[in-house]
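Team,

Forwarding the record for the chain on the shared tracking sheet. I've put the sequence and predicted structure together so nobody has to dig through attachments.
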Amino acid sequence: MNTHRIIIADDHQLFRDGVRLVLEHTQRFEVVAEAGNGHEALEALKTTEADVLVLDINMPDMDGLETAGHLRKEHPQLRILIVTMLGHGSLIKRLMRLGVDGYILKENSQKEMVAALDAIVAGNNYYSAEVTQAVMKSLEPATKKTPSDNVTLTNRETEVIRMIAREMTTQEIADALFIAKSTVISHRKNILRKLDVRNIAGMVKYAMERGLLDD
């Protein structure tokens, strides 16, 4: 029986330990590395061969959304299974556009996680029923939400958010706006602080829900 190599990227050690136990019990999967954020996952892939990355979204330093973008450019053959608490339709669609192979929620069962991995290593995609429902709901017409009165973004900050939502890198944004890369990083930090969110995924979600990305 073939054993498939797995890397787990999640900032909670308890979750990683649980996933490792479940997967190794199947005897079909071997956890070859663990990472607490996207940077660590990318570093692990420099020295460790893997078939699938089990990836969370909410992580410090480099979240799952940014990590998935890097992986599709640097490791296009690697299969990606998102396992997260976040089930927002807009976020799911962004990750699907990036080319993730599966998406389930942490509230799903261990059995479903194994089923998702079995499908992915067989060359198929796997999205849990809850994830599919969230995507379908996001396609329904909805009442447009207005930005919070407590949030005031500058025109430049709004430009930066739009470019981040288009999956442009920090250097690409700097080149497009004719500003230094460090200035883009500063804008990004200010936006995160103003919107009171932890990472880029939260920034884009917040902005989309409040119409900040509308032309």
